[in-house]
């Protein structure tokens, strides 16, 4: 049986579609001021990218019933990899285990897609917190750079029962 990931406060961390009821809360997710060099100042920017680009899908991160973060994912048909982006935990909610649990939930969700063999993401080379988190989740460097960001990848094992 699969357990829902929880943060260090015991809150259930889950991903949710962005809808009429929660889009404001998702749009208002903001990193700490000093993290603005690594990510957008507001998740609203990622929501717009999801709406306009036709590539990314934004999801809210819930801690129990409260929106505490944003993530998004895409499938790169050419490269054959799924990508994660726009990972932001609201400034006041950081350091509680939300980011780790949200990433675990997203990796689990993407891994269930039949075409998912590899998950990739990129981060600013100075973003040591993100680097630690992704390494702990099993992502390893690909050697590639994307817009001057370090690209890491996680292999998704093929489910023999599928
Ligand atoms: C990176 C981010 C998503 C992590 O979310 P979080 O909820 O704060 O992280 P967690 O509490 O789940 O911590 C998970 C791990 O991340 C690493 N980590 C997170 N913040 C860190 C920091 N400031 N310094 C060092 N390591 C850090 C640690 O390895 C930590 O594990 P530990 O608690 O066992 O030490 C969050 O800090 C954030 O939104 N930062 C701004 C946006 C950003 O940089 N996003 C990533 C873009 S690629």
Automatic annotation (TrEMBL):
InterPro entries: Acyl_CoA_acyltransferase, GNAT_dom, MshD_Acetyltransferase. This is GNAT family N-acetyltransferase. Signal peptide: none annotated. Residues 13-157 form the N-acetyltransferase domain. The lineage of its organism: Bacteria, Bacillati, Actinomycetota, Actinomycetes, Kitasatosporales. Pfam families: Acetyltransf_1. PANTHER family: L-AMINO ACID N-ACETYLTRANSFERASE, UPF0039 PROTEIN SLL0451.
């Amino acid at each position: 049986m699969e357990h829902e990931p929880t943060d260090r406060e015991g809150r259930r961390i889950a991903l949710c579609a962005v809808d009429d009821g929660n889009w404001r809360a998702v749009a208002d997710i903001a990193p700490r001021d000093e993290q603005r060099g690594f990510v957008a100042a507001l998740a609203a920017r990622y929501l717009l990218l999801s709406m306009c680009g036709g590539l990314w899908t934004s999801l809210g991160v819930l801690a129990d019933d409260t929106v505490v973060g944003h993530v998004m994912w895409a499938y790169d048909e050419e490269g054959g990899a799924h990508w994660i982006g726009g990972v932001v935990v609201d400034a006041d909610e950081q350091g509680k285990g939300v980011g780790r649990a949200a990433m675990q939930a997203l990796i689990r969700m993407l891994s269930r897609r039949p075409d998912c063999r590899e998950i990739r993401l990129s981060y600013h080379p100075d973003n040591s917190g993100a680097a630690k988190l992704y390494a702990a989740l099993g992502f390893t460097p690909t050697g590639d750079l994307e817009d001057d960001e370090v690209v890491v990848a996680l292999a998704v094992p093929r489910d023999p029962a599928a």
